[in-house]
Each structure stands twice: as structure tokens, then as C-alpha cells.
Amino acid sequence: MLNTRLKAILRELMAAKSYITGEDLAKIIDVTSRTVRNDMKELEEVVSRHGGTIKSVRGTGYQLHIGDDQLFRQFLQEFVQKGSSQNSAIPDLPEERVQYLITRLLLSDRYLKLDDLADELYISKSTTQNDLRDVRKIFGLYGITMEKRPNYGIKLKGDEVKLRYCMSEYIFNRNETHPDILNFGVSVLSKDEMDTIRAIIVAQIKRHDICLSDIGLNNLVNHIAISFKRIQNGNFVTLGSKELQDLMKEKEYGVASIIVSKIAEQLGVIFPEEEIAYISIHLLGTRMKANLQQTGSDVLDIEPDMHQLTLKILESIENKLLLGIQNDQDLIVALGFHLKPAINRFKYNMNLRNPMLSEIKSNYPIAFEAGIIAGVVIKQEEDIEINEHEMGYLALHIGAAIERRKMSNMPKKCLIVCASGMGSASLLSYKLQSYFGSRIEIVGTTEYYNLVDLPMQSLDFIISTIPIARSMPVPVIVVNTFLGNHDFQEINQVLNINKGRTLEYTNENLVFLQRKFETREEVLQFFGDALLRQGYVGESFLASVYDREALSPTSFGNLVAIPHPAVPQTETTFWAVCTLQKPIKWGDKRVQLIWQTFHCWTSMATQ
């Protein structure tokens, strides 16, 4: 089938929006360009037998083309099933070995010997010990420890709820947002069992008027599947009596009770009261407002404490970034309804991974900075510390307001299908309006699972962030949530629109190429010294950059990091760029291009 390198290359090709060079692929998977060329020939042979081709253009790179979508999806399903079997390719990249070790420990109820783990991975005992250091750090984030017993090995020890949250994060790969695509990971239940659980949940949330994003729905399915398996193995959650009583008063507890009773009827597993409460926590933490097209009157529906918190957040953002969105009523409503389930998530230590985080950082850095400011206010007002994933979700609402500020009322004519929830749907909606003007009328947005229930007579076309396999009566344009150039070209072909864009803010005196640094700290110190020496920044610059990195690493994938100070250090906007001879570790990602941004917020807010 496919070895680890071929899998890595295929994933990069599937994720790429345009051509990707062999040199870039070589850097990402840490091999030579020659190895990539040889691997590409082998991968092309495999892909060509399963509905796809890999187009190669000299000097431009490689691009994956899918000719037979159904055949290629069958190939992906086989890819998943074989990849999760015992005989699948042995991981050889450090991050893959860490993932493997995390999965092995999470799924084992017995002690695992270090020698056995080393043999499974075909690596030395010392290398396994080094990998386990990284594993231990990750488990530490969940309050999980690795208990070591002489002559027996290692075993995980921790709170059952936190163990399940960790399983949800590391056993289920939630990078894919399409509800029909199987996960590249380990499935704790059979596909039929997972489909049954999904169908029960969808029926009940529709019946009880609870709206979930597709990602929220997938998260709930995953968590119930994990609960199902853990209960079968005799592992149960425990909640305090007051906590349990509080949850039993919520509407979501009643819906959770019906869901588990249906699961018990069809799959034969009984959920105790505390397990029902655990599921209701997830309903509380993922529920969202159903209607994207809100009006100012919706402010009256926001809980007073959430309304006040929203106003304080927007006041702080305006004071620091001058974005001109403080009085945006749609934003006030969106944040007001978003904050309640968000605070519930963190109240119960519930993790909700944001699969769009890297793209949000990359495409909407100002909005993400505003999300960080919102996190600081939430910490001050609620004594709850949100993580960068939640900051990213807040940034989607703020990004939508920024786009909205740049546009006037423009009629359009399409339906948006978005798997990621109201925030990203709103951001996509206003981005389309801002870019295409009066050519498009957006009549609404929907989740994938609700698409079949909607009338299509008034639509000219559909814009979707996920592939739609079923036949539709109108054309479907599949785009990225953040609308790259290829997406605009696709829509332009339908609307016959052409637009151009420009880049600025480069400074040749601030470009440093092929530097030999080994750590993030060396890079930041170099930037600090160079910029201070040239008079661009003051003495407080470097400390402010480290303050910002402490809130959320500024590496976002594709070997790129964008470090910057926590507070503005200049009244002008310019960039400083540094490339490295070899990638270095930056947060949880590798980085070889450092693009340091310096913003005059008053000018950036209008761009």
C-alpha cells in the first residue's frame, strides 16, 4: 500500500490549494528532493489506479487532480482501514511516533513495557524514551500521568473525563470537516455503530430544536462513541452531586437522556446518570444559534451577563486595535450567543479542537489578535482561561465584522453550506459579499446534514466548504473557508468577474536569508538586536514578542511563523523576513520561514 512518506506526501497534495514544489515537500517531510521525486513516481502509480492523477510542471511543482471522485473516496476509505490495522506502515517521523505512542497508551488498560514499544516501532529503547518525554508533556496538559511499575512497564493514570477528552483529541483526527469522510486514525467502534449513533443524535437535535455545527456534531458522535467503549470496558465518569444536579436542570440533559435510551435500544449499552450528564455537557458546549441572519432585536435574547461580557470584550478590542467594530450589532449578537457555550466548555474542562486554527492565524491575523484580547478579558471577568483554539473561534466572528465593515449592502443569490459552524459561515458570507459586490445574494447558510431538507427553487448555485456527493438541482462550487485565489477564480468563471490584488510593506533592509539558527529564541534575539540597532523598535520590543508567544505560538504550519509584539511598537506598518538553512521547532510545529509583522493598527483595520 502506502508507506509513511507516501502518506505524508498525499496528505500535503490533498491540502494544497495550488501547485506545491518538490523542494517544499522535501522540507516538510525532512527528506531530499531526489527522494521526493522517486516517491512521487510510486505515488502516481497508486493514485492513477484509484481515480486520480498527479500533474507535474517543471519549475512549478506537483498538483493532485481527482477525475473519479467516488473511486478516489473508496481508495481513501481503504487507506484509513489499512492505516489503522496492526500491519500498517510503521511510523518513522518523530511526530508520528509520538502520535502512535499516545494512541497505544490511551487504548491500553494494562501496563506496556518499554522494550515492547521499541520493538513495535523498530527503534532503539533510548529513542523510545526520548519520544515518551514528548508524550508525557502532552498528557500533562490533560492532567494525565504515566505510572511506571518495575518489571511491568507504564500505564496511564488520570481522571476518566480527562482521559476521554484526550482520546477525542488524539485518537480521532478532526482535521477533516466533511461528515462523510472517515478519519485518518483509529476507530473505537465499527462504522455501522458510528452511523447508528450519528443518526440517533441528528434525529433528536432536530426534534428538540438544538442546532450544532457539523464539527460540533462530529465531536459529539466521537465523544459518545468513546463513552460507549469505555462503559463496555467498565470505565465510568464521576461527577460531584451538585454538578450533577445542576446539569439535570438543563434542557440538554433531557435530550441526552433520550439519545442514550435510543442507543441502549439499538446497541445494547446502558448509560448511568453521570454518563448522561457527561453527554449533556457536550450538548451545552457545542450548541449554537440556528439563524445566521440575525437582527438587532436578537440582543434582547442574549443573557444579560453574556451581553455585558461581550460589550467589555469589544471595548477592550477597540481600545487596543481601533478596528471600528465596537458597535456592530451583528457582532454583539454573534459573540453574545457564542460565549455561553464557550464558557460552559471551559467550566467543565471540555476541549473543542479548532481544525481551522492555522488558517485563521494565517488569513486573519488581526482578527486572531482580537481573539487573544477577548481571551484576556474573559480571564479577568470570569476567571476562565480559554485556549488558542477558542480564541480562533472568537476570531471568526470578529473577522466577519471586519469584512462587514468594508462592504455596503449588496444583493446576492446563493446558499452557503459550511461544516464549521456559524462563525466561519458568517466570515465566509461577508468575505463573499466584500469581494463580489452586487453579483451575489446570499439567501442563507446551512449545515451539510440539513441540506436535504431545504428548498432549492430560488437558488442559482451553492457555495460549499465541503464536497457534496449527492446530486443537486443547481451548480455547486466547492471553496476553502478562507477563499484562496483558486476559489475566487472558480466563482469568477460563473459570475464573469475579475479582480486584482496588490502586496506592499516589504523592506529589503529587513530581509535575512539562509541564516543558521537552531532555536526559536536565537531567531527572536537576532530580530530584536537587528531591529533595535536599525532604530525600528525600542528596548521593550523583545519582551513584548515573548509575551505574545506565551499566549499562543505564532507558527501555523507550512514551515512558517509570524512572530510579533503583544502591543504595537511602531506607528508604521512593515515586514521583516528571515529564512533558515534548516527547519527548527517552534511550538508544536517546524519552521523555516519567519515573517515578522509590524502593524500600525489604524491603517491595518481598513485593509
Description:
By secondary structure, this protein is α/β, with parallel strands linked by helices. It folds into six domains: 80 residues, Arc Repressor Mutant, subunit A (Orthogonal Bundle), CATH 1.10.10; 65 residues, Orthogonal Bundle (Arc Repressor Mutant, subunit A), CATH 1.10.10; 119 residues, Orthogonal Bundle (PTS-regulatory domain, PRD); 84 residues, Orthogonal Bundle (PTS-regulatory domain, PRD), CATH 1.10.1790.10; 82 residues, Response regulator (Rossmann fold), CATH 3.40.50; 97 residues, Mannitol-specific EII, Chain A. Helices cover 51% and strands 12% of the residues. It is built from 23 helices and 15 strands. A hairpin with a 3-residue loop joins β3 and β4. α14 crosses α15 and α17 packs across α18. The longest helix is centred in the middle third of the chain and has 19 residues. It is globular and about 70 Å long. The chain starts with a helix and ends with a helix. The C terminus is likely disordered.
Largest sheet data: 5 strands, mixed
Mean pLDDT: 80
CATH superfamily of the largest domain: PRD domain
Unreliable spans are 83-88, 173-187, 290-297, 497-503, 600-607
Strand residue content: 5-15%
Q: What's the gyration radius in Å?
A: 25 Å
Strand order of the biggest β-sheet: 11-14-15-13-12
CATH class category name of the largest domain: Mainly Alpha
Question: Count of DSSP E strands?
Answer: 15
Overall number of domains: 6
**Kindly, what is the distance between the CA atoms of the first and last residues, rounded to a whole number of angstroms?**
48 Å
Number of helices: 23
The gross shape turns out to be: globular
- What is the CATH architecture annotation of the largest domain? Orthogonal Bundle
Give the fraction of residues assigned to helices: 40-55%
CATH fold naming of the largest domain: PTS-regulatory domain, PRD
Structural class: alpha/beta
